[in-house]
Design a protein that fits this description.
Structural class: mainly beta
Largest sheet: 5 strands, antiparallel
Strand order of the largest sheet: 1-9-6-11-4
Oligomer: single chain
Order of helices and strands: EEEEEEEEEEEEH
Strand content: over 45%
């Protein structure tokens, strides 16, 4: 499957919790880029694209949001509301994020550096390419 949930090992005690992201240990790719978004209006939609080469793990480190993923043949929604779990999105997976809680911080771990040319921002174009 081109998308699935990953449960992260979390260490904690009375001082709090710690989750570590480490190449090839709890990520299905070598980490090349990290970014996060916050202050997103509750009714906003983010993403709305697919990537030809990039793989992602999306983690809601605070608050919650819904992620719709589509591999060209099936669609599924995931509610991300725990920093102990991430959503893996493989190459050629359409992603849309919405239903952001006001306190949401969305962390994204990526397998590639940013390259606008590998983004597909039109859903019909995505369908044409993914169903070849």
């Amino acid at each position: 499957m081109n998308y699935y949930l990953i449960n992260f090992t979390t260490h904690g005690d009375n001082r709090g919790f710690l989750t570590v992201f480490q190449n090839n240990a709890n990520l299905p790719f070598t980490l090349r880029r990290i970014f996060y978004s916050f202050g997103i209006p509750v009714k906003a939609r983010r993403g709305c694209h697919a990537n030809r080469e990039s793989e992602f793990v999306v983690v809601s480190v605070a608050g919650s949001c819904t992620v719709l993923v589509d591999d060209g043949t099936s669609r599924q929604e995931f509610v991300l509301d725990s920093p102990q779990q991430g959503l893996y999105c493989g190459k050629m997976t359409w992603k849309e994020m919405y239903n952001f809680s006001p306190d949401n911080v969305l962390l994204v771990l990526a397998s590639t550096e940013y390259d606008d040319k590998e983004y597909i921002k039109d859903y019909e174009q995505f369908k044409k390419e993914v169903l070849k």
